[in-house]
Write a structure and sequence with these properties.
Blueprint (H helix, E strand, L loop, with lengths): L4 H12 L5 E4 L11 H13 L3 E4 L3 E6 L5 E6 L4 E3 L27 E2 L18 E5 L4 E3 L4 H15 L12 E6 L2 E7 L8 E8 L4 E8 L2 E8 L5 H10 L5 H9 L3 E2 L1
Parallel strand pairs: 1-2, 6-7
Antiparallel strand pairs: 3-4, 4-5, 7-8, 9-10, 10-13, 11-12, 11-14, 12-13
């Protein structure tokens, strides 16, 4: 249940062990929170070619259990029944903050922290998936729940807890995955939503290759790469540094032979 990276990596692991695997996704696309429909479609087709099955636009309405407590199947919204012996739920990350509600520690989706990873209560710090810290591109608090961000936040929080004031510069969203030799990497903002962003994309479906760059003016703010992921590190550095590209923006676009998305 769920079409995010946690769910798909679990499904991939089970498929590799020889199990029959069906993924039920409530949205119209897998990885809808991570990448656009074109990139997600390439990955889905690739997984289907290796035996993974998908039900998009469906939810599990009921898990059927035998009298002895064993799972026997699931019923989808709409009535379709799928036999099953194991149900895995991978529906996203939710910070465990319920124990803080009603306390002086300010929370939103996570624990709100300042540039020193300090909460609203002096001397109380937070880092990792529970911390709602500064997003460099959105310019507002956000949760970017990945290991590199958690490690960087933990280091910064540790310095500040030890008395050395060291600000945390912020994070961006990043994701990567590889299924049966097909790699995908995303970073930053990946949707052109009409708020000053422009996107350029190139696709070679026969080779499962796709590239998309998203700009705010002459600054790169996001990319998606499927298949050929070379230069992902360079592009990520351009995003983190918010480097003004000037004429290099045109060369970057033309060099990839990509067109307006």
């Amino acid at each position: 249940m769920g079409g995010g990276l946690v769910s798909l990596k679990t499904a991939y692991g089970l498929l590799e062990r020889g199990l029959q695997v069906t993924v039920v996704v409530s949205s119209s696309s897998i990885l809808s929170q991570v990448m656009d429909g074109v990139a997600a479609g390439l990955l889905q087709r690739h997984l289907e070619e290796h035996g993974m099955r998908f039900y998009l636009g469906h939810d599990v309405a009921e898990v059927e259990v035998s009298a002895t407590g064993e799972v026997t199947g699931v019923v989808l919204t709409g009535g379709t029944r799928l036999p099953a012996h194991l149900v895995v739920v991978g529906k996203g990350v939710m910070p465990n903050i319920d124990f803080l509600r009603g306390t002086p520690v300010a929370v939103n989706r996570g624990i709100l922290v300042n540039q020193y990873l300090e909460s609203s209560v002096p001397g109380v710090y937070a880092a990792g998936d529970v911390a709602e810290s500064y997003d460099l591109l959105r310019r507002e608090p956000a949760i970017n729940a990945i290991w590199p961000n958690a490690a960087a936040q933990g280091e910064s929080a540790g310095y500040n807890m030890a008395g050395e004031r060291r600000p945390y510069r912020g994070s961006i969203a990043m994701n990567s995955a590889s299924f049966y030799g097909l790699s995908a990497i995303t970073a930053g903002l990946n949707r052109v939503d009409g708020h000053g962003y422009e996107g350029y994309a190139w696709k070679d479906a026969a080779r499962n290759n796709y590239r998309k760059l998203v700009f705010a003016g002459d600054r790169l703010v996001g990319f998606t790469m499927v298949g050929d992921t070379r230069r992902a590190g360079t592009l990520t550095s351009l995003i983190l540094g918010q480097v003004p590209l000037g004429d290099r923006k045109k060369r970057l676009i033309e060099g990839d032979n990509i067109l307006p998305a």
